[in-house]
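thread from #wetlab-drylab

HS: before we spend reagent money on co-crystallization trials with manganese (II) ion, can we at least see a predicted complex? here's what I'd submit
DV: go for it
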Amino acid sequence: MKLVTFNKEHLGIVTDAGVVDVTDLAGLDANFWPPVGMVRLIADFEALQPQLADAVASREARPLDSVRLEAPVRWPNKVIAFPANYHAHIDEMKHGVGSGVISKYKANGQGFFLKANSSISGPNDAIVLPPLEGREIHHECELAIIIGKRGRGIDAACSQDYIFGFTCLLDMVVRGTEERVMRKSYDTFCPMGPWIVTADEMGDFSAIKMSLTVNGELRQSAVTRDLIVDIPEMIAMASAVTTLEPGDIIATGTPAGVGPVKDGDIIEITIDGVGTMTLPVTSGTVGNHSVWNATKVPASA
Ligand code: MN
């Protein structure tokens, strides 16, 4: 099943005929704030199966191109993100920041970090670059896991029970040595979408292919079998520390090929079995601060 958030806070199921509105089945109206509708739909998903099936069978669908898709999960409890998690990308970071710090960038030795939930944007939103002179802002192409139910201390062998689905995610980052959370938390630095594909439709989780282009040129390409920390172990590691909640997002780390983007670029991310998200890059006027000039560092770090 494909699930979308559309036209602000409406929830939908994507069928061959278009988008079927199921907002009411999550027990909220579309004007409710904060926008936690998809979190509730995910939490109640199993119990709602009869009503959702009935809605698909009986309700009129709107053409997909007649609605505005938003980030599928707009108000998660948290966005967990893994750093360099493919061998080839670690080699790249090694060359960028020099030897002696390689282990620092390994997801299996370093664990995970968080991005601000407010950095989430949708498949129809531009990525807005803050005006930071002399800094590179990079794209990171990532598969996102959407968590389906609450859990702590989850064994890797049971991890599949906690995976609700998958979506495309871009982990945008200002390169530098400031706190990583700050460098990755600008508004629009976490585009997600265009929809959640439920886990039952994804096949083998270790054979998911993804790619990213900038202005049509291939920059990143990978398959999940090349992950250092695989999907079950990411869930085990994250849940060792925090209680995972329905709707939580895990960005699974980037493969090789990260690079700078600039105003006017078009980024396209494709994940096989999920879909494609095409995003324009624009320049913003807000976002500079003296903290970015406090230390002079290589732009590539
Ligand atoms: Mn990343």
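DV: The pocket of manganese (II) ion is lined by residues 81, 140, 142, 171, 251, 253-254 (CB under 6 Å).
HS: ok that's useful, forwarding to the group
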